[in-house]
Amino acid sequence: MMLFLLWFKIKQPTNITQKQLMEIWKREAEAAMPAVKAGKIKGLYKVTGRREVVAIIDVNSHEELDGILETLPIVKELGHSLTIEVTAIHPYENFYELMKKLLQ
């Protein structure tokens, strides 16, 4: 299990309308829902008041994550207007166990 925190920041291109942006975002949501139901996406949240989405995703490798990101509708359609911040994370319980081990 490799967990990553993904922070998607979307900037609306000047050459598309609000409706077109929402249509792209809808296609992205439709693509994401099966991954949420399958447990691949552990958490998926819209940031209130911003064009941002935060996800926690479980992958087997860095290469798998790259492959997933490149196939997302929002990346394909808004790639130049999208920033994705990727941060590796792990369960806090694992960190706690590590601290106990290091302090022995």
Quickly count the domains: 1
- Reading off the top of the CATH hierarchy, the class is best stated as Alpha Beta
The helicity comes to: 40-55%
Number of helices: 4
Query: Which fold name corresponds to the CATH topology?
Result: Alpha-Beta Plaits
CATH architecture: 2-Layer Sandwich
Brief summary of the model shown:
With 104 residues, this protein is α+β, with helices and mostly antiparallel strands. It has a single domain, classed as Alpha-Beta Plaits (2-Layer Sandwich), CATH 3.30.70.1060.
Describe it:
By secondary structure, the chain is an alpha+beta fold. The chain has one domain: Alpha-Beta Plaits (2-Layer Sandwich). The chain contains four helices and four strands, in the order E-H-E-E-H-H-E-H. A four-stranded antiparallel sheet has the order 2-3-1-4. The chain is elongated and about 60 Å long.
Question: Could you name the key traits of this structure?
Answer:
104 residues, Alpha-Beta Plaits, elongated, alpha+beta, 4 helices
Question: What secondary-structure arrangement, pairings included, does this model have?
Answer:
Elements: E1 2-10, H1 18-38, E2 41-46, E3 52-59, H2 62-71, H3 73-78, E4 82-89, H4 92-102
Antiparallel strand pairs: 1-3, 1-4, 2-3
InterPro entries: Dimeric_a/b-barrel, MLI_dom
Organism: Saccharolobus solfataricus (strain ATCC 35092 / DSM 1617 / JCM 11322 / P2) (Sulfolobus solfataricus)
Domain Muconolactone isomerase: 2-93
